[in-house]
Automatic annotation (TrEMBL):
Pfam families per UniProt: ParB_N, RepB
Domain ParB-like N-terminal positions: 10-100
Source species: Alteraurantiacibacter buctensis
A biological process from GO: chromosome segregation
Highest rank taxon of the organism: Bacteria
This protein's name: Chromosome partitioning protein ParB
InterPro entries: Chromosome_partition/occlusion (IPR050336), ParB/Sulfiredoxin_sf (IPR036086), ParB_N (IPR003115), Plasmid_RepB (IPR011111)
Entry's Gene Ontology cellular component terms: chromosome
CDD domains for the chain: ParB_N_like
Length: 297
């Protein structure tokens, strides 16, 4: 049964929340989450489902583990949450699906999530239906996982090699891999730059192994000056795009701050907020409204 959307946000005791699908997180990224919440507050509530128990209700986490752990790190005892209706199995699957559907998920995350659903007894057809992936894709990923082909799996995720070709390479003896690439070329699955990239990946797999770690005693490949220049140019373009988006966001924030400053001088509006117990705001925003300082990103 799919989870039903909640109608309002509730303050939930943190010690009553159980994380069904815990994940290990990058500490640097986690610190950024904590600092961000400490400065500007929680922008998106976590999602939980309520379970009735003799000692009072408890909650299973559906999504928002990072935000929940940030609240714990900040010493909070309650966290804003959307409460939905779903059983424990639905919550677990929803958490796995969320991880699979993330826009910038890492290959290892996809591996863990599909493997986790298989270990819990879900068939490949069920995994495909619940994640929105095709059954053929789930089957191919499962085959690569079972054979430890992390390098090929990452190449599939990055779009360098079609999944069917990656599976064929994984099931082919090393001396026949070039024949598999030639067959893919003849079928129109690998053309031009993709064929060259596939050859590089196959060569890297032969020299470094199926996994992503570099074997002990093996040196890293030197990067050419041309590759460094291209990487610098690509990075510069990404930063210019980021600056443009940041400027647009800054302009919108200036409008919001000015609107809040004017509302803050309206006694009737303030009285309504106090009646609804909403008279406080994040310290960062309050300082800017009082001081009239420029919004900085």
């Amino acid at each position: 049964m799919p989870a039903l959307p909640a109608q309002r946000v509730e303050m939930i005791p943190i010690d009553k929340i159980k994380v069904l699908n815990p994940r290990v997180r990058n500490q640097r990224n986690f610190k950024e989450i904590v600092d961000n919440i400490a400065k500007i507050g929680l922008k998106k509530p976590i999602t939980v489902t309520r379970r009735a128990e003799p000692g009072g209700p408890s909650y299973d986490l559906v999504c928002g583990q990072g935000r929940l752990e940030a609240y714990i790190a900040l010493g909070q005892t309650e966290v804003p949450a959307l409460v939905v209706r779903a059983d424990e199995e639905d919550c677990l699957v929803a958490s796995l699906v969320e991880n699979c559907a993330r826009r910038q998920h890492q290959t290892i995350d996809l591996l863990q999530d599909i493997r986790g659903m298989e270990e819990r007894g879900y068939s490949q057809a069920e995994i495909a239906r619940k994640t929105g992936l095709t059954q053929k894709y789930v089957h191919g990923v499962s085959q690569l996982i079972k054979q430890g082909e992390l390098r090929l799996l990452r190449s599939v995720e990055s779009g360098h090699i079609p999944l069917c070709v990656a599976v064929e390479i994984a099931e082919t003896e090393d001396h026949d891999v070039q024949a598999a690439l030639s067959s893919a070329y003849e079928r129109g699955l690998l053309k031009g730059k993709k064929l060259l990239m596939a050859r590089k990946i196959v060569d890297s797999r032969r020299r470094r192994g199926k996994g992503l770690a570099i074997p002990e005693g093996q040196k890293r490949v030197r990067i050419s000056a041309e590759a460094l220049v291209r990487a610098y140019q690509d990075d510069a373009e990404r930063k210019r795009s980021l600056i443009r988006r940041a400027q647009a966001t800054k302009n919108r924030l200036l409008l919001i701050v000015e609107a809040l400053r004017r509302l803050g001088s309206d006694e009737t509006f303030i009285a309504v907020l106090e009646d609804e117990d909403l008279a406080t705001m994040p310290q960062n925003l309050a300082d800017r409204l009082r001081g009239g300082t420029e919004v900085r990103l």
